[in-house]
């Protein structure tokens, strides 16, 4: 039987059969300013000729799946002829869901997977549990790991011991990629150019130019310098969707420090925004969110667990999710933890080669593990026992 692994994120769906490669596809629908009546689904985004003023219709709100109509349309597209041509009668599915998901959402998911799509068997599991499985599979001698998963809606810190998650140690911070993009939109709109409707473009700006500062106050001093002395300044060329399809950073040697560009390109000049926006992950209070940053939340999580586990957790911290792609994130987190953790305990922070698909890779490994058949719920079991069999089997 084929196994389809679907890491169903709030921003992108990571999907693929367990014997094939992963595809990363937008988990939403779009409408463009020019064709308001037509709705584009998932990877049909590439068909939109002018994505300015792109309007996102998301199935997730605050990290939870609430718009089933949109999610069904995305899944129909993914499972259908254009994409994966799923033969439901001969396919098992591993699908992710957030920590502490609502029972009503879990039951709706069971019904859709078994009754509408009629998968042969299914496993609902947290993305962090798949990342932990990946970790224990690659390093069987490890007893514990701490998964830091920072995605679109929020950031979770989840401790695992021998593949079992320790619920009372899980911490959630309400800061994710969506909040960072919105914050950057507000800063640019206030300082330079009204971009509040340009989520798609500004998200690309964030991914292209933002980084995590190693010395925040020192970088702030450099950011105040004028002209060529300011080596943090970057000029970003915005797309016009005719000649320039995708925005890009101007090379340093082509930047004009006094006067204007003669090319007619629309330019955003970015200085302290580059590091002040990702800084929110470390200090949410900077923008009025009264919560711990990631380093404090990690320490708080580990200290809530038995003392003998703590050294093992600190030396096996695994970073997953799109926000881990900011340059400098791993180094900064390791440095901050080093100053917070007792000196005799080693601290090791691991950044996988592809943190976005790390959970999916864990699902792929799980699909081939000897215990997999005992973890899933088959359609027969579901038809016989209903939702209670899923509650018993899935460790959510």
Automatic annotation (TrEMBL):
Keyword list, A-Z: Cytoplasm, Cytoskeleton, Nucleus
Annotated InterPro entries: Actin, ATPase_NBD
Compartments, as annotated in UniProt: Cytoplasm, Cytoskeleton; Nucleus
Gene Ontology cellular-component annotations: cytoskeleton; Swr1 complex
SUPFAM superfamilies, alphabetized: Actin-like ATPase domain
SMART domains: ACTIN (SM00268)
Single GO molecular function: nucleosome binding
Protein family according to the UniProt entry: Belongs to the actin family. ARP6 subfamily.
Protein name per the record: Actin-related protein 6
Organism the protein comes from: Oryzias latipes
Gene it is expressed from: ACTR6
């Amino acid at each position: 039987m084929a196994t389809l692994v679907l890491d169903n994120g709030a921003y992108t769906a990571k999907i693929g059969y367990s014997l094939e490669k992963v595809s990363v596809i937008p988990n939403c629908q779009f409408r463009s300013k020019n064709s308001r009546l037509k709705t584009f689904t998932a990877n049909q985004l590439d068909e939109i000729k002018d994505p300015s003023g792109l309007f996102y219709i998301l199935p997730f709100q605050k990290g939870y799946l609430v718009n089933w109509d949109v999610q069904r349309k995305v899944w129909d597209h993914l499972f259908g002829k254009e994409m994966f041509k799923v033969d439901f009668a001969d396919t098992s599915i591993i699908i992710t869901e957030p920590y502490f998901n609502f029972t009503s959402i879990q039951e709706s998911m069971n019904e859709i997977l078994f009754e509408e799509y009629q998968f042969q068997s299914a496993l609902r599991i947290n993305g962090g549990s798949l990342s932990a499985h990946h970790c224990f599979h690659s390093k069987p001698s490890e007893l514990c790991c701490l998964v830091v998963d920072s995605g679109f809606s929020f950031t979770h810190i989840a401790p695992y011991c021998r593949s079992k998650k320790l619920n009372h140690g899980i911490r959630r911070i309400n800061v994710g990629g969506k909040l960072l993009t919105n914050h950057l939109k507000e800063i640019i709109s206030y300082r330079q150019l009204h971009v509040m409707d340009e989520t798609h473009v500004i998200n690309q700006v964030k991914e292209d130019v933002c980084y995590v500062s190693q010395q925040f106050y020192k970088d702030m001093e450099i950011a105040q310098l004028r002209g060529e002395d300011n080596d943090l300044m970057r000029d970003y060329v915005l797309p016009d969707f005719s000649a320039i399809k995708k925005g890009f950073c101007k090379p340093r040697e082509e930047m004009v420090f006094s006067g204007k560009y003669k090319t007619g390109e629309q330019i955003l000049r970015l200085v302290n925004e580059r590091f002040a926006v990702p800084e929110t992950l470390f200090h949410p209070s900077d923008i009025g969110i009264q919560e711990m940053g990631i380093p404090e939340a990690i320490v708080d999580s580990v200290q809530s667990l038995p003392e003998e586990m703590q050294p093992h957790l600190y030396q096996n911290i695994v970073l997953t999710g799109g926000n881990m792609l900011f340059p400098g994130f791993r180094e900064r987190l390791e440095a901050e933890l080093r100053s917070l953790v007792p000196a005799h305990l080693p601290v090791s922070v691991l950044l996988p080669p592809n943190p976005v698909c790390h959970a999916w890779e864990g699902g792929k490994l799980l699909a081939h593990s000897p215990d997999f058949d005992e973890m899933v719920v088959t359609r027969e079991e579901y038809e016989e026992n209903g939702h209670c069999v899923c509650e018993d089997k899935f460790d959510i």
